[in-house]
Write a structure and sequence with these properties.
Elements lengths: L7 H11 L5 H7 L8 E6 L5 E6 L21 E6 L5 E6 L9 H18 L1 E2 L2 E5 L8 H11 L10 E5 L13 H15 L10 E3 L3 H10 L9 H23 L4 E2 L1 H21 L5 H17 L6 H9 L11 H12 L7 H16 L1
Parallel strand pairs: 6-7, 7-8
Antiparallel strand pairs: 1-2, 3-4, 5-9
Helix pairs in contact: 6-7, 8-9, 8-12, 9-10, 9-11, 11-12
Bound molecules: guanosine-5'-triphosphate and magnesium ion.
Family: Belongs to the TRAFAC class TrmE-Era-EngA-EngB-Septin-like GTPase superfamily. AIG1/Toc34/Toc159-like paraseptin GTPase family. IAN subfamily.
Keywords: Nucleotide-binding
InterPro entries: G_AIG1, P-loop_NTPase
Length: 362
Amino acid sequence: MGPSGAGKSTLVNGIANYLKYETLREAEADNHVTAVIPCQFEVQDDDYKGHIVKMGNADEAEENFNSLGHSVTQKPKEYDFPIGNDEYIHIIDTPGLADSRGVKQDQKNLELIRQAIINVGELHALCFVLKPNESKLTIGLETTMRLLLSIFPKKALDSVLFLFTNSRGTFYKPGDTTGPITKLITDLQKECGANINFGRSNIFCTDNEGFRYLCAKACKVDYTTATHRDYEDSWKHSRNATISLINRIRNEKPFDTRIINFYTELRFVTQKWAEWIKNCNMSAERSKRFGTVVYELEKNMIGTNCNDLVELAKSKRFREPRYVFDFMGIMNILHEEFVETDLDYNVANEIRVFLDRYIFQF
Ligand SMILES: Nc1nc2c(ncn2[C@@H]2O[C@H](COP(=O)(O)OP(=O)(O)OP(=O)(O)O)[C@@H](O)[C@H]2O)c(=O)[nH]1
Ligand SMILES: [Mg+2]
């Protein structure tokens, strides 16, 4: 995931090749380049004349090349690569955000990403793909990160990894982007207690120009942005980063992505529950149940913004609980409130249906 043009699709193509060839020279000797995702880019010769390099036939509904700042990748798609021992790595490439078509397009793409994540069932890593040369926390970078993070429960944030592309110029380090990302992480920690690591163990730096060089060669276009030695080095660094990334993911415990839907729907039904609560006098027990659920929502998701609901609970004598409930704890509270008692207000039925659905899923 990440901003449009960060190099997500190129990275997936790079990985496909790094897993096949140890060195750029080996790949060249084999005279073969794998482009699992069609790609297209322009290189300029010494007279600044542009030459198009094009690999694979792009279906416009999947990869739509344009020079308008629109996201090239149109929808999330999974790519699988064998990594030995009968194991596969499954990577989902996604459309980029901060699309020049504006907020509406970003919302559409965000929803496509959210659905793809929920459908996959289990995720071992949430990879943010970034470029190393962003020295400011621009609105584009900040909103992209905030929107994407808002999909996940806080528990999933241990799986956040940062993948840098284009990093030869910064010696395969995150470079100036360190500042804005660190600031954003600090802000999120202050705002909602989200903990995101940004350090040696979850930063992986690549430069996929070795892959671009191979594509250009296959199209008989001279690619001379750097020396052959630089491309060989890029290949070596990017391949090592790919291997470290795979090793890291292998040891990661996956999280159940259906939880995302659970919290989103819980937010929705809780809003209705709140409408009912606003107008009634309730026992301390019942106000505690409502308060605990909204407090849990507020604690668990970034950007759900349930503060208004927490305030409502407090106005009904709710005090913040001493410990945070987990998913099953919340299910039990809802069960107590809506199944064990025979409430006859509309929302009760809706919540019962919601509970039935999730009780059997997990
Ligand atoms: N030199 C260099 N160019 C890169 C690298 N990664 C990507 N590019 C180029 O940057 C441009 C954008 O790359 P894409 O892979 O299409 O970016 P994306 O993140 O998939 O973009 P969207 O699909 O629009 O979200 C292309 O011209 C790539 O060839 C890199 O590591 N080094
Ligand atoms: Mg793409």
